[in-house]
User: What shape does this take?
Amino acid sequence: MSNPQNKPSASNWFRWFDPRRRDVGTYAFILNRITALGLTLYLFLHLIVLGQLAKGPEGYDSFLKLIDNPLFLFGELLVIAAVLIHGLNGIRIALTSFGIGVSTQKQLFYATMVVAILGSLVFAVRMMIG
Amino acid sequence: MINDWTVTFLVYRQKGQGPAHFDSFKLDVNPDEYVLDAVERIWSFHDRSLTFAHACHHSTCGACGMRVNGVEKLTCITPIRSVTTNGGTVKIEPMRNFPVVSDLVVNTGIMYRRMDVVGHHPVLPLAQEPAPTPAKPPQKEDLDTIRLADCIECGLCISACPIALTTPAYLGPAVLAGAQQHGVDGNRSLLELVDCGDGVWRCHSAFECSAVCPSNVDPARKIMDLRKQVIRARIANLFRRD
Assistant: This one.
């Protein structure tokens, strides 16, 4: 009789995020999930911010003052980086999902990450300049 | 002359419904021996109750798939040198995503049944092999099969797949690769089996199946090709009158 341990189970979801000893494809898989969760969280935060508009100009202005600090700016940069990573990796997955570039999927991932990092740096510089 | 290495083997143990634990065995090994050789030596000289599966010792039967230091390996072709260093540790566990029968042995029955359902041919004539670039082209003109491009049904790909980890109903890489090999054209029951949420569309492109496959099957590429087959069949069905 076999032991039920070790069987597939939805409760194993946390093991998706274990990158140890895995290959490049898993790194891309993990990054896509982390950025998706981050962007979903951001969407809720964004809706909360927009909800401040209902409190009138004063409420919105005071909220903008609250978030005008380096920590929130860094958070915005993370959002931009997540959009770039998730979007570009999504294009890679869409292509490979239909047989385009499957044999070069690792190189495609590296290329998309280089573009995402460069794009994030450009946004970071623009944020610092003002 | 190659000096022996001293290596500690941490071996997963589990009997029946009992709790899992690791037993430690320190061995002097030739680093060019294979991991399976060490497992056999542990069984021969240290613990006769250790259970593990093996048969051919040359990567044909697919019986000795295990996780070695967290990575799916066919242990009969995995040199100890490639997974540790002198004085190092090798952690040996059963494959994931299959129920443990005993110690390092898992029940891969569900995979075999599914492979049967999709009509997978364990050995395919060379002329029918769809792989565009086999890793080792045949050297002899009279060789009519290309064994190493065929699935040996070891289950390593299913163990490595993150989606198979969480979705018991997912057919898995080996089965979908078998379906691609068989082809869904004109096979409505196979099309219905793979064209569903737990079939070809469940793959999330982690490509771990192809990374660990010891037979150059490249299941990820075959899954992507199967998607094209499914879409072609769907379009063809739009214009079919029956």
